[in-house]
Specification:
Structural class: alpha+beta
Distance between the termini: 43 Å
CATH superfamily of the largest domain: 5' to 3' exonuclease, C-terminal subdomain
Shape: elongated
Number of strands: 5
Radius of gyration: 20 Å
CATH architecture of the largest domain: Orthogonal Bundle
Strand content: 15-25%
Helix content: 40-55%
CATH topology of the largest domain: DNA polymerase, domain 1
Strand order of the largest sheet: 3-2-1-4-5
Number of helices: 8
């Protein structure tokens, strides 16, 4: 399975490029409509390879996080490779993370072929199982130290990673996340975790 390609762009058309590898072999790759590639530019792409009906399609992404989000979306029942790729092309991994964290069904429903019912499924499934602490940290550099200290404190008290991720999401959703008052947040978290 093709997972990565590096080569020169020899043709651009209809949100697709032909990428010629140093070996001389050329691949037709679907790309984001937002991507401004230039003819004869050398690019590196993370690839999603889809095979069906004796046809192979390649979807290209300029960073690994976008490619990883395609995999996350594909785990949701009702989301196929084309819709997953289009969602990433439209929103990017940061936009998708934000949509999931904020339960923004409207943002997800902008994706062609993605209905509200499936958008709700994406939010429910990814919010509870797929959003990792590393992404929560990366989403806001300001919160790095706070999240690290908060996480270490709860981990030292015996709480597991999943419980900590859930309580961070809950605090943010209920607007209780306050970087300036770590002690109060830990107290609130212990209350929430004790109710489980």
């Amino acid at each position: 399975m093709i997972a990565f390609l590096s080569g020169k762009i020899v043709a651009i058309f209809d949100n697709q490029i032909i990428l010629r590898l140093p070996s001389g072999l050329g691949y037709l790759v679907q790309i984001s409509p937002k991507q401004n590639f230039i003819l004869n530019e050398t690019v590196e792409l993370f690839i999603l390879e889809v095979q069906r009906d004796n046809k192979t399609e390649l979807f290209g992404f300029t960073n690994l996080q976008d490619r990883e989000w395609v995999e996350k979306l594909l785990k949701v029942d009702g989301v196929g490779p084309k819709i997953a790729a289009q969602a990433v092309y439209l929103l990017g991994h940061e936009g998708l993370l934000q949509a999931v964290q904020n339960s923004d069904i409207k943002a997800l429903s902008q994706v062609k072929g993605l209905g509200q019912k499936t958008a709700k499924k994406i939010v429910l499934e990814l919010k509870s199982t797929q959003v990792e602490l590393t992404e929560l940290e990366a989403n806001s550099k300001q919160n790095d130290q706070t999240i690290t200290t908060f996480t270490e404190t709860l981990a030292n008290l015996g709480f597991n990673r999943r419980a900590i991720v859930e309580v961070i999401s809950r605090l943010k959703a209920e607007r209780l996340w306050d970087e300036q008052n770590l002690n109060e947040m830990i107290k609130q978290s212990l209350k929430l975790l004790s109710k489980k």
